[in-house]
Specification:
There is one protein chain. The protein has one domain (about 5-260). The chain has twelve helices and no strands. It has helices spanning about 5-15, 25-35, 40-50, 50-60, 70-90, 90-95, 100-120, 135-145, 155-165, 170-200, 205-235, 240-260. The chain is globular and about 50 Å long.
């Protein structure tokens, strides 16, 4: 990895983590073109810089994280399904993370779903349910939807936002709960990955530590901008543009893979 690659990956992380376009998928695509996807440090880097994106949510919604104990309990309930399935399917998930074809296919499928989402849940925009009134049952069901994001290319934010909308939440409320749920989910994933690397005897050199520091700072700044812009856009315009983007990107990836050259992971 170089400093340029670290900066590019951090920008991609901050920009895509909270958009329904799959940050993991974009990171796999980018690192594949950079020819560094197989590198152990690259895999660690793409997980650890999520901490910067997590901090962006905490800063933007600082008051929400101190509103009540009930808020944390609901996040914990929503977090449980991902913990259980993540531990059970760890090896399968790791193998899927090495497949650009899986990313491309899921981008396309998710794209078609997003194009229809606004029509399916148009009545939800009349609802004024706030995150503070979300029930524990609703939180758990959203957590089940989050598990779909274990398939790279699906999009954690997209899955959880749609999961919230199936529970009658409007786009803004569903998106904000998705952001909140990202904090324990991404923190847990980062902690586990760091533990796995520590257990395997992996040691960071000074340059790699610098990469992680720079990556987190950039991911934080870009995520701040992306979250605010996304909420404003989503409230007014819906999901269609993200759906079309996913389909176009997925098709381009399949064409590149099968006709020009195969992405090397």
């Amino acid at each position: 990895m170089t400093y340029l690659y670290a900066i590019i990956l951090a920008i991609i992380e901050g920009l895509t983590e909270y958009l329904p376009v799959s940050s993991t998928g974009h990171m796999i695509i980018a690192s594949s073109f950079m020819k560094i996807a197989n590198d152990d440090f690259t895999k660690l880097f793409t997980i650890v810089i999520q901490l910067g994106a997590i901090l962006a949510v905490v800063i933007l919604y600082f008051k929400r994280f101190f509103q009540s104990v009930d808020f944390y309990l609901k996040l914990f309930v929503a977090f449980i399904p991902a913990v259980v399935l993540g531990l059970l399917l760890n090896d399968l998930i790791d193998s899927l993370l090495e497949s650009p074809i899986t990313v491309a296919i899921m981008l396309i499928i998710g794209g078609f779903i997003l194009i229809k989402t606004d029509d399916w849940f148009i009545e939800n925009e009349k609802n004024t349910v706030e995150n503070s009134t979300i029930s524990y049952a609703t939180a758990f069901k959203i957590g089940l939807f989050q598990c779909l994001a274990m398939i790279p290319g699906t999009s954690r934010s997209g899955a959880t936002i749609i999961g919230g909308m199936t529970q009658k939440l409007n786009r803004k409320t569903a998106a904000e709960f998705s952001f909140f749920l990202a904090v324990p989910t991404m923190f847990g994933a980062t902690a586990k990955k760091l533990y796995d690397y520590y257990k395997a005897g992996f040691q960071l050199n000074s340059e790699q530590i610098n990469f992680l520091i720079i990556g987190n700072i950039i991911a934080f700044i870009v995520a701040l901008i992306a979250i605010k812009s996304f909420i404003d856009y989503l409230s007014k315009n819906g999901f269609k543009i993200f759906g079309y983007y996913r389909i176009i990107l997925g098709v381009i990836l399949l064409i590149i893979h099968f006709t020009i050259f195969k992405l090397s992971i």
